[in-house]
């Protein structure tokens, strides 16, 4: 990941390609999700759980790291990236802190997002009502 | 010996009770459809200015009841029985409206077939002399039904090719011995039929066999032909479900003709974002007590068979992977 | 009357009916749905990439930028839900709106808005994760398990 985002990469063409690859890979992952909904007739919640689990498993084989290196946000933004982020954080912290890190690391990359989701969802719920 | 019973499952009323009056209240989506002009009241805000959708639904049913009573110049105290139901757990909308009304209350549940189920009971009580005036009412609300059976309103969910849209509204109908033009002549309560459909997005296909069964039984019991009726209207099969019904009736050797229509399709024809048609208790109630009843009062329709369909599932059983038991209740209206 | 507990409609009747029904039930417009999911999902990820590049440009490493990027996308998803926009995106784009992390945020915000009517403690508080919960539960279960195996096997 380091090399991908090092300063040489910050050139114009590099960034342009970033976007194209993020679009293609992210789009492809979402299209697979759609196929699961329409062809496999999976309920949406099951599809999302499947994605997060697959992300975590692929992370274990090092595949998802390579996908992130290649596609950046195209791999991180889909919910499979969420599973990968949990797995990766857990592994990095386990190496650093041992067993405790295994668990604290689960929220290393995702904790910020989850806390923000809870905080701002509650805030939004105070002011906004569902509309048909 | 049951003197009012004909055939396998049909009631023929000895002295057919009449519809004295009816009240219909519809929400914003319904007012965009072709049926809008047949409703007594159209509410542009589906929340009715209330804090919760459940309270709003109560207002819909309460207003429908008020309109029906006002039209007939009847006081709540003159109502012998209030027979009502809705889609919410413990039919709570009906119970709250019954408390407001004050009449003796018989709560009923037939999912989306409640409109005909409650009207059948009301007619039976009047015909048998248990009541002079019985009031039947039902309601449904898009938001309350989504909350109970599906997902939060603001959730990102894509409608399936067979999804239906729960109608927001209510209907109330006052049944008496005299004082109306439209007579309730026969009723055919349905059997529960479950053909193993499990997908909650396929209510039309789940309910079609129940509709076919009830229509077939009704026609056999009465010795009638589908052409006997000016209109045969199912409650809320949607376009897909009604296509299946036509095929099923064809296969049973009783094809339905051009006098057949589906209430769900009629309610939302041309309204964007409503899937294959309307559903919910209000769907059949709005069509029967708005469109059909008023057209009969104008003598534009002389006889109608209303077949309200209901999917008797609970959100608990479908989560447990069970299929959907379905019912269809039919009632014959004649001038 | 059938035996108690036995279904009146034998299973072959049911199978026959379901075959008939599925021959009439319209298929989902698969090509359209896949294309829209691809484009909308891809666009959301492209926005994510722009956010990530901005964090990296401000001096973060790739790893450091992951958390803030996901957080920004989640915030965007919550706000779009509050404005009653995101469910229209979902209706239009299906998995294109559900799979990105913005969709995860939507499930939390939508539940919070919906269930607050049953009170802030037992409604909103208890049910905020009614849809997102499984994603978190299985994400943590699988993520930690995978990390544990990898950590034990390679130290």
Q: What is the C-alpha radius of gyration of chain B, as a whole number of Å?
A: 18 Å
Question: Helical content of chain A, roughly?
Answer: over 70%
User: pLDDT below 50 for ≥5 consecutive residues: which ranges of chain B?
Assistant: none
CATH class of the largest domain in chain B: Alpha Beta
* Residues in β-strands, percent of chain B: 15-25%
Please supply descriptive tags for the structure shown above.
heterotrimer, A: 132 residues, mainly alpha, B: 335 residues, alpha/beta, Peroxisomal Thiolase, Chain A, domain 1, seven-stranded mixed β-sheet, six-stranded mixed β-sheet, globular
What does it look like?
- The complex is a heterotrimer of chains A (132), B (335) and C (155).
- Chain A contains seven helices and no strands.
- Chain A has helices at residues 12-38, 44-60, 63-71, 73-76, 79-97, 99-104, 111-127.
- The longest helix of chain A has 27 residues, at 12-38.
- Chain A is globular and about 50 Å long.
- The mean pLDDT of chain A is 90.
- By secondary structure, chain B is an alpha/beta fold.
- Chain B folds into two domains: 5-176, 3-Layer(aba) Sandwich (Peroxisomal Thiolase, Chain A, domain 1); 183-334, 3-Layer(aba) Sandwich (Peroxisomal Thiolase, Chain A, domain 1), CATH 3.40.47.
- In chain B, α2 (53-71) packs across α3 (92-101) and α6 crosses α7.
- Chain B is built from ten helices and 15 strands.
- In chain B, strands 1-2-10-15-14-11-12 form a seven-stranded mixed beta sheet, with helices on both faces. A six-stranded mixed beta sheet of chain B has the order 4-3-9-7-5-6, with helices on both faces.
- Chain C has a domain at 29-129.
- Chain C is 78% helix and 0% strand.
- Chain C has eight helices and no strands.
- Chain C starts with 10 loop residues before the first helix and ends with a helix.
- The mean pLDDT of chain C is 92.
- At the A-C interface, α1, α2, α4, α5 and α7 of A face α2, α3, α5, α6 and α8 of C.
């Amino acid at each position: 990941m380091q090399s991908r985002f090092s300063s040489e990469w910050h050139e114009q063409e590099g960034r342009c390609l970033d976007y194209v690859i993020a679009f293609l890979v992210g789009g492809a992952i979402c299209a697979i999700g759609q196929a699961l909904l329409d062809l496999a007739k999976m309920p949406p919640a099951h599809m999302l759980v499947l994605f997060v689990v697959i992300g975590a498993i692929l992370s274990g084989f090092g595949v998802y790291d390579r996908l992130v290196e290649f596609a950046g946000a195209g791999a991180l933004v889909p919910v499979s990236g969420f599973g990968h982020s949990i797995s990766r954080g857990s592994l990095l912290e386990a190496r650093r802190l041992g067993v405790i890190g295994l668990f604290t690391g689960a929220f290393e990359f995702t904790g910020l997002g989850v806390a923000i989701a809870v905080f701002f969802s509650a805030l939004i719920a105070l002011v906004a009502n569902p509309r048909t | 010996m049951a003197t009012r019973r004909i055939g396998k499952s049909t009631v023929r009323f000895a002295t057919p009770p009449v519809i004295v009056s009816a009240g219909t209240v519809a929400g914003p989506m319904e007012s965009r459809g072709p049926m809008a002009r047949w409703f007594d009241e159209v509410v542009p805000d589906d929340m009715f200015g209330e804090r919760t959708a459940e309270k709003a639904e109560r207002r819909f049913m309460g207003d429908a009841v008020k309109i029906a009573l006002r039209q007939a110049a009847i006081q709540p105290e003159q109502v012998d029985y209030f027979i009502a139901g809705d889609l919410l757990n413990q039919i709570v909308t009906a119970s709250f409206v019954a408390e407001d009304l004050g009449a003796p209350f018989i709560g009923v549940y037939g999912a989306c077939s409640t409109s005909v189920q409650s009207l059948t009971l009301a007619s039976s009580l009047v015909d048998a002399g248990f009541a002079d005036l019985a009031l039947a009412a039902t309601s449904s609300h898009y938001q309350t039904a989504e909350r109970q059976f599906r997902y939060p309103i603001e959730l990102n969910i894509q409608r399936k090719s067979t999804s239906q849209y729960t109608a927001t509204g209510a209907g109330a109908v006052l049944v008496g011995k005299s004082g109306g033009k439209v007579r309730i002549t026969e009723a055919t309560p349905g059997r529960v039929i479950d053909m193993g459909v499990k997908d909650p997005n396929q209510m039309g296909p789940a309910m079609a066999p129940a509709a076919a069964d009830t229509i077939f039984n009704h026609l056999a019991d009465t010795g009638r032909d589908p052409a006997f009726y000016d209109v045969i209207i199912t409650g809320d099969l949607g376009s897909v479900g009604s296509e299946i019904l036509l095929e099923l009736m064809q296969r049973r050797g009783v094809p339905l003709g051009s006098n057949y229509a589906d209430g769900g399709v009629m309610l939302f024809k041309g309204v964007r974002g409503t899937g294959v048609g309307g559903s919910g208790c209000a769907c059949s109630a709005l069509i029967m007590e708005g469109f059909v009843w008023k057209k009969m009062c104008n003598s534009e329709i002389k006889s109608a068979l209303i077949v309200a369909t209901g999917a008797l599932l609970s959100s608990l059983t479908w989560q447990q992977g069970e299929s959907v038991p379905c019912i269809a209740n039919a009632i014959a209206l004649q001038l | 009357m059938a035996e108690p507990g036995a279904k009146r409609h034998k299973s072959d009747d049911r199978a026959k009916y379901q075959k008939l029904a599925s021959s009439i039930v319209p298929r989902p417009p698969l090509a359209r749905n896949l294309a829209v999911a691809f484009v909308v999902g891809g666009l959301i990820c492209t926005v994510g990439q722009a956010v990530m590049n901005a964090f990296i440009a401000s001096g973060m490493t790739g790893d450091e930028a992951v958390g803030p990027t996901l957080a920004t996308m989640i915030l965007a998803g919550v706000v779009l839900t509050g404005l009653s926009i995101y469910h229209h995106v979902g209706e239009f784009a299906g998995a294109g709106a559900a799979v990105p992390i913005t969709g995860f945020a939507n499930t939390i915000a939508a539940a919070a808005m919906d269930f607050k009517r049953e009170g802030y403690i037992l409604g909103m508080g208890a049910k905020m994760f009614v849809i997102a919960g499984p994603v978190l539960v299985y994400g943590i279960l699988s993520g930690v398990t995978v990390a544990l195996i990898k950590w034990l096997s390679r130290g």
